[in-house]
Amino acid sequence: THERSLFQTVFLSPEELRLRAGWRLLLHTIFYLVILVTLTLGALLLYRGELEVSIKSISPAIMIELVSILSATYLARRFLDYRSFSSLGLQIDRSTLSDLIVGFFIPGLMMALIFLVEYAVGWTQFQGWSWQTVGISQSAIGLLGGLSVFIMVGIGEEILSRGYHLQNLMEGLNLHWALFLSSSVFALLHLFNPSSSLMSTLGLLAAGYFLAYGWVRTRKLWLPIGLHIGWNFFEGNVFGFNVSGLDTFRLLLHTPSGPEFITGGTFGPEAGLIAIPAMLLGAWLVKLYTRDRVKIRSNNA
Fold first, then answer.
1. In the chain, how many domains are there?
2. What is this structure's pTM?
3. Which of 49, 83, 125, 211 has its CA 20 to 30 A from that of 183?
4. How far apart are CA 170 and CA 177, in angstroms?
5. Gap between the Cα atoms of 24 and 167, Å rounded
6. Where in the sequence is the domain holding 264, given as residue range(s)?
7. Is residue 27 part of a domain?
8. What is the pLDDT of residues 150-184, one digit of tens each?
9. Bridge-partner residues for 252, per DSSP?
10. Is residue 41 one of the residues assigned to a domain?
11. Is residue 274 within 8 Å of 118, Cβ to Cβ?
């Protein structure tokens, strides 16, 4: 009947018997919020109303965030998408470990470039190393605490943004719109971070594209996960910048003083123009690293 066809047009996918991508994304968001609120209320009761949000070491808030993303995505994948969770690009193969390791170290070079440029032109003053003030063991604990947090953040945010959002948007629309919309949502999720601004939002939009490039080149999430963990860890814990407005343990101590629209100021380099050449370097390294796999994929196509 006409009514049924209208219902089908609005709600059901033309290709198969499941909801359209937009409705699936909406329900996935509702799943996520319901799980997040439930777990947060449970934790608040457990911790008597004190739930510290810190990125210096693993906190209940960070664990709740990760569990909420994983649970909502698993449920949506299974009962809305009719696909497996691992088909988001989490299949383990012989390149999984190298994707994670190479992905992790590429931002190390990017952040080194940013720091060296700022230092060379006098936009930051080097003050020393953390072990000179807190000792070697506290520095090691600080680095491990930071790394453990950023592993959880990297896994969660990549499964959400480059996993569920990007890939369902791509099925519903096309790759270009999917890249733009998933990166926009990724940027807007950081809107309430300290020192957030128009520049930081645009910078995170660009960072969304950079991280998505790792998925576009491999069709797996391991490289973007490595890139995301490495970005936060080297930016904050190693090179001593703020990570999207948040303070963390720093190995290298320095005082940035350059023009904010270039350095990103108290938000961190991703809010400044200096992130653009660094991301171009990172994208070139990603392209170089994945060149054989892309060649194999296009030959098989």
1. 1
2. 0.93
3. 83
4. 7
5. 12
6. 90-300
7. no
8. 999 999 999 999 999 999 999 989 999 999 999 99
9. 129
10. no
11. yes
